[in-house]
Amino acid sequence: MEVPYGNYPISAQVDPVIGETDITNNMRTDGSIKVTIIGDANRDGHVDIIDLYAVGKAIGTGSSTSNWNPNCDFNDDNAINPLDLLDVSKNYGKAI
Asked: What is the pLDDT of residues 37-53, one digit of tens each?
């Protein structure tokens, strides 16, 4: 499914676990997401040298490392690798 570029509000709700008595924090509605171009690591609407630098700097990191940048993991495999650089190169120069 293709989603148009833009900002979208999000909400999340969790179900109470057995024995939970404080459920006041089980609902969040104050967040938002931004849909942009694959390869736009800094989410400014342009795929450029800044994004290339961010992904290059993050190469070799993963979700288990302290310096992992999830904005550079374009294919959601929990690792920053050459496939993410490929996404930057495919969309380099594009803007929303």
From this structure: 999 999 899 999 999 99
In the CATH scheme, what is the code of domain 6-91?
Answer: 1.10.1330.10
Q: Record the tokens describing residue 14, joined without a space.
A: 């969790």
User: The tokens 């800044």 sit on which residue?
Assistant: 50
HSE-CB for 29 with a 13 A CA cutoff: 2
Say how far apart CA 61 and CA 47 lie, in whole Å.
21
Neighbours of 85 (CB within 10 A): 19
| DSSP, residue by residue, the chain | ----SEEEEEEEE-PPPTT----TTSEEEEEEEEE--TT-TT-SSB-SHHHHHHHHHHTT-BTTSTT--GGG-TT-SSB--HHHHHHHHHHTT-B-
Are the CB atoms for 73 and 41 separated by under 8 Å?
no
Distance of CA 12 to the CA centre of its chain: 17
pTM to 2 decimal places:
0.68
